[in-house]
Amino acid sequence: MAETKPTAAKAATSGQAKKNSNIISWIAPIVCLIAGYLIWRYILGANSGFKEPDLSGGFWPTHKKPINGLYRMYDGGIIVPVLFGLFLMVIVFSIERFLTISKAMGKGNVTDFIRKVQYHLANKNIDAALAECDKQKGSVANVMKAGLKKYNEMTHETQLDTEQKVAAIQKEVEEATALELPMLSKNLVFLSTITSLGTLIALLGTVSGMIRSFSALGDEGAGGNASDLAVGISEALYNTAAGIATSSFALIMYNVFTTKIDGITYGIDETSFTLTQSFASQYK
Q1: Which residues pair with 50 in a beta bridge?
Q2: What is the mean pLDDT of each run of 10 residues along the chain (284 residues)?
Q3: Half-sphere exposure of 33 (CA within 13 A, CB side)
Q4: Which of 38, 122, 203, 229 is the most exposed place for a label (fewest CB within 10 A)?
């Protein structure tokens, strides 16, 4: 009973933290989409950036004749702020994942940390190994510390055989790992989704722009609609460029973070092997 209550309290705490974090994860995309629209509407769509501004304002003013390339991006249409919002999401979640994963990696080299723990375990100095975990910190150290505590407990256990003790240590490591890994991969789904979604939304904007272009060509006296034709082509090309840039950035950051997570996961696997093999060899 003494062990069951702390476990329940710990699970409740973890669940509450996860819930709060998920709320933030869903608020961030909404804020980014709003920010994307504000950038497109009030910076790229500022009246001062056009020779013939639409002074009536509104949600989507029909400005004409932008004065330079920056304001021409406004001609990309209403899909552009969506792509801006997606790009901001990539930045926000990249910063969030960088901070989280950097903390999870600990303060020192993981390989060196595991070697130090192995050395202390070889000398049956569990307290020194625990001290190394406190200095290292991070996910690997957290798993190692949980395993070491069970390791220390099993050295004083007299009613179980060696195989059962090793299994108990392995189970403790697996439980600690189950708490650490979801935190590492959390929010990566946004980056992986934007990798594909950015391209699809850009394609939608491209098709929309081409429809506008062919509509201008199909009108009577198409030669007089050269301005509408140019706007349609601009809409298509700006959406294509923005979508490719957003998807490429998201893909790069996703691969960077998954590589770092793989390194941490490998360190956790080494932790499990180190603890079980050390115990099996020294406490037969």
Answers
A1: 66
A2: 39 39 81 96 93 89 87 88 96 94 91 93 92 94 94 89 91 93 90 94 89 72 62 81 94 96 93 90 79
A3: 10
A4: 122
Tell me, yes or no, whether 148 lies in a domain. Answer: yes
**Domain contains 31:** no
Backbone angles phi, psi at 50, to 5 degrees: -135, 145
**CA 211 – CA 217 distance, rounded (Å):** 10
Q: At what angle do helices 79-104 and 226-282 cross, to 10 degrees?
A: 20
Distance CA(145)–CA(157), nearest Å, equals: 19
188 in a domain, yes or no?
Answer: yes
216: which residues sit within 8 A by CB, 6+ positions away? 222, 225, 226, 228, 229, 232
Give the pair of three-digit tokens for residue 253. 């950051």
What's the domain range around 223?
Answer: 90-282
Per-residue pLDDT tens over the stretch 263-273:
999 999 999 89
Instruction: Let me know if residue 214 belongs to a domain.
Output: yes
52 has which bridge partners? 64
Q: Total domain count for the chain?
A: 1
Q: Give the amino acid at 87.
A: F
Give SS3 for 50.
strand
